[in-house]
Amino acid sequence: AQCWQSILPSSEGKMLQEDTGYMLSMRMHALFWQKWTEKEGKLRRVINHIQKCDVHKSNPLDPEVFPPADCLVSSFCLETVCKDQSSYRAALRNISSLLKPGGHLVLSGDLGTSFYMVGPKKFFCLVLTEEFLRGALSATGFAIQEFDVLSRDDDTMQEICDFSGMYFIVARKEKAI
Ligand SMILES: C[S@@+](CC[C@H](N)C(=O)[O-])C[C@H]1O[C@@H](n2cnc3c(N)ncnc32)[C@H](O)[C@@H]1O
Fold first, then answer.
1. DSSP letters along 23-34, please?
2. Domain locations along the chain
3. Which class is 69-173 in CATH?
4. What is the chain's Cα-based Rg?
5. Which atom of ligand 1 is nearest to the CA of 91?
6. 8-50 per-position pLDDT tens digit
7. Torsion sign (Cα): 150, 70, 58, 142
8. What is the pTM of this model?
């Protein structure tokens, strides 16, 4: 419910509180997708290039070399592709090389996830904690500016994914490590 409310304007939030049951869920569903199709359209219009990336390489964009960026966004990626904590820290160092000193990393994903299902297929996920993330970012030259956690507030669908919450981080690259 916290997630839904945060994407709704306050007047819609109030209207939703007055609705009930089926209508409520239908309206939320419609509003959610309306917002996301708008966002998808906007994103598609501003993307002008897609580049392959491998976070395990010291230059993740190898063989290309791009000027360092002001901002880098990574979502639900590193924990699904790094097999352990040391490989996660190495990947952070690698992607940090794509950023200017003073540039920002916007990092988000799940806390506490050890697996997730896509249909019948089970995927590995490295279990992350807030403590580990804070340590790893600091060890790789980042200063955390925001660290928000949204805790999981129900136990349903544990068989799909065992996450305990979600994290949203903004960190500034202080130095190259
Ligand atoms: C769980 S998906 C997340 C996708 C998307 N960011 C999202 O939030 O829906 C993990 C992504 O990591 C990508 N990936 C796998 N190995 C990678 C690697 N070595 N370097 C960078 N990305 C990788 C996969 O292609 C996949 O898109």
1. HHHHHHHHHHHH
2. 2-46, 69-173
3. alpha beta
4. 19
5. 20
6. 344 444 444 444 545 555 666 666 677 888 889 999 999 999 9
7. negative
8. 0.81
